[in-house]
Fold these 3 entries.
Entry 1:
Amino acid sequence: MNGTSKALINLLRGWPNPALLPAARIKAASDTALSDPDVYTPGLLYAPEPGYEPLRQSIAAWLNSFYTPRDAILSERICVTGGASQNLACILQVFTDPIYTRNVWIVSPTYFLACRIFEDSGFHGQLRSVPEDNEGIDIQSLKEGLRKSEEDAASRGNVKPTLKPPRPWSKIYRHIIYAVPTFSNPSSKTMSFERRRQVVQVAREYDALVITDDVYDQLQWPASPASTQSSLDHAILPRIVDIDRYQDGGAERSGADGFGNAVSNGSFSKIVAPGCRTGWLEGSAKFAHGLSQVYLFHPVCELCWTRSDADAENSGSSASGGAPSQLVATFINNLIENGDLQHHIKHTLQPSYARRYRSMISAITTHLLPLGVTLPQSNRDVLGGYFIWFSLPEPLRADDVAERAKDDENTIIAQGSLFGVYGDVRQGDLEREVRVCFSWEEEARLVEGIERLARVIRSMQAGETGTARANAGVPPDEVGEFQ
């Protein structure tokens, strides 16, 4: 129990505010799909392995408009998924071997539930944190870690996959690199173009696959508070998968195997609704095909399908299902085809999140910066995402501030220790860091939440004792954006 009667303000939960959910647009899209037998018949049956083809084509066209690549993105580079989290697990299922794949290298601080997915895929004890600075991932730290990992693998004779059989549509990477390069969760930072280019170089040198969660890219706006513009039509930087596509000849360069060294994990959770559980992967055509095989469905008589047929296809435990989210894929395809999704992003989400961000950052500037709080990447031209990340002044520790904020002000924030890589010996680097979210609470309460936090910090700096609690830290049911 907290010691105040104030209404709860939750600045931890990374969900969209319910007012921003496009229920009417989704209803119209679903009505259209379910009224047309040419749409609802395939939508209600098993999906082809790469997913609903009209949606793959619509995603490709939409991504071409937003990222403006040198050459058009074709649907063969797209695979429909059950969302970014589910797809991360599928990538690991197809393209890693938890013995041969030496380590998973994770930019720290990280989206902490990704660590659980990696551990569930057999990588417990093999997660390695890589620090970031204002340009993004620390390349030298990454290279040094990779070099030592390769020396260790060589000393143990770890030279070929041991748990996964050879498959013509797959490969096993020696390393995985995981990052959220644009408007990162939690640090809100954006990785520079040069760091993105360097990551691709390093990945190729060490046979690593770079998996990027590009789920916040479309949620962007000009940084200047004086700007009258609250939406932007095009991406601010090429994705790492775009750089891998072209740099030095891309996946088809001499000596390469065609799978590439980077994939983009996309999701409609942040731009349509989390309950849709639909996303996409973009990678080389060869990689997208390989991933689709985890969903392989054999549309033949089951009585005629023998064990040898299954073994020949190497389709794994998901062989009977087809691609996920097939019915919802027909709805989302309608949203993209008729322009409703693009309109929703430009005229609802971007302006709403820009307004929310500016309200919260104004309150932080007014109430927290004078107390010694500092912000990263303060000179950016474009901002976006769901979160603001800041550092507390010495000697305050985020765990203590989070506890006091809940006790004294009934306000929940996310302390930096939540975002450490599992098993990371450098957790102390995050002990003064805080993440606050501006997407969930009502707009009027965002400023009040920061004002409450300022009162807590002033009180702690003055040495005042807060309300006692029976349990320290954020309660488990409030580790919040995913519960």
Entry 2:
Amino acid sequence: MYRYRILESRHVLAFLLLASGFSTLYLYLYPLFHACAFPSPTCSGQKGLVGNEQQDTSAHAGPSLGKAPFRLLALGDPQLEGDSSLPSSAGTRLPWGLSGLGLYIQGLRKRVDLVGNDYYLAHIYRILHWWTKPTHVTVLGDLLGSQWVTDVEFERRAWRFWTRAFRGSHKPEEDVFESKTEQILGAEPDWERKIINIAGNHDIGYSGDMTTPRITRFERLFGKVNWDIWFRVPDHENKLKVVEQDGEPLELRIVILNSLNLDGPVIDTGLQQQTYDFLNRVILTSKPVESREVATILLTHLPLHKETGVCVDGPLITYHDSVYGGGIKEQNHLTHESSKGILEGIFGMSGNPEAPGRGQGRPGIILTGHDHQGCDVYHHLSPSQDSEDRRWEAKRWLDAIHIVNDSIVPGIREITVRSMMGDFGGNAGLLSAWYDEALGQWQFEYSNCMLGVQHIWWAVHILDLVALVSLLLFLVGKHSGQSSLSARVVQRPVPRRQREDRTKIE
């Protein structure tokens, strides 16, 4: 019977250890199982976005572009929750009443869930950062879960953001936020640990509840809400030498825009004017639209305007009551007018063939957050309308290939990065950018990588714990069983007949 129990325990333990081993292997190598990697000119560039055109680049990548020089790990809407998500009466001491006990248990469960969620987000960031080796990282807004929290709670969540979810990283130094900052791409490797944080509505509020104190505390802990930086592409052999094309340096311009107060009414017109001034400065300091040597990557929280049905979130704007200022209370997209200002201002697209650059504008791409489901669209001017009355439209990226290939129609791709929260699969975006020397265009490629819902993270670690405890119990039980059996063998009395035989022999 004992041997049967041992054999049965071994089978159970073997199953637990195998299940634990394979599930842990998946959890810590999930990018390998999902073939997650930054798109590269040599591997995934057969059909790529080159400037504003979809082209075959397999013959043009060149030997020096085995790996894209700019690789952006894009993470959307982590939304770290805190005390506002706890049951209203949950305290830190165990109450004596049964109703209070129920609230206490709910509060304790939520606190455990918050800690687990922090480490779930940390797992995504740490594993993907290690596996894909990005040159830059951005979090596209809604870093925290509510703009209404107190300063103390805001700092507590910011501490969790930097010490748990994104441990080992930090915001850029203050001098980076200065106007017209230029750096050589890759000359400062610390950029892979500097997180470009975008302000979201749950960080600073919509325009109807965005205040100076909320902006100030966000900028102190996460970085400026409006800034830009220019990266010059170095020679692949001499990292300190800037590559030039037709006498002009190859550059990537990263623009971080607080789009939350572009539309109104606003509660603070001064903050809105700061955003307008920054937007105008970006436009005035841009290179001529004819230049193909410079590309712009716009990082902002609110997606641009789209018609209902293009993405999961349709256009929606609600307003506070007049007693609270009447400003914007909730907003899914920018208005068409604000979106037009970005497309025609920052990117200089007009569709006028007589305009500089034939109205095609500047090459680039737009990354946004906010819509947790994510979306991938192409903004373009409708080719069927008169040039004076043409309106900006958006189509899903895969449905717009025929428009992308039309060199007469100006347009640009906007990717709304799916949220990294567990309910949305723990997603991350991988954006690569490089300059195609043969085509004379900047090229952008994007892919997603998903871990799976947060329950996977919990299940694997619980299974690992059960397997470890089972292994220890098995070893202890086996050792105890063997000791007990040995003791019984040693102390067993000699039968009477055997004693009598021994006496006769003697």
Entry 3:
Amino acid sequence: MKHLAAYLLLSLGGNTSPSADDIKGVLSSVGIDADEDRLDKLISELDGKNLQDLIAEGSTKLASVPSGGGGGGAAVSAPGGGAAAPEADEKPAEKEAEKEESDEDMGFGLFD
């Protein structure tokens, strides 16, 4: 994906046929090493093809893919009557809080 992104950036910049060295230059400018095999495959597959046509063709293919979007879930209403909730409902919430606390310390930090 990173190779394709670099290829597209170069194309948008006016380079109609980016070379492997051009793509390596873009990737190395942000500290990414290029994978030679994937880069060669990308260059060979896109060689001589119009990017605008490829993007349009891909968009029509994606348009036919179902994307879910079945709508939101049903809303659940709160029980009425103003009666106090039973104490049994409070205990599971307390156990969940204990689980969350125990999961926090896994021996390392996210930003360590």
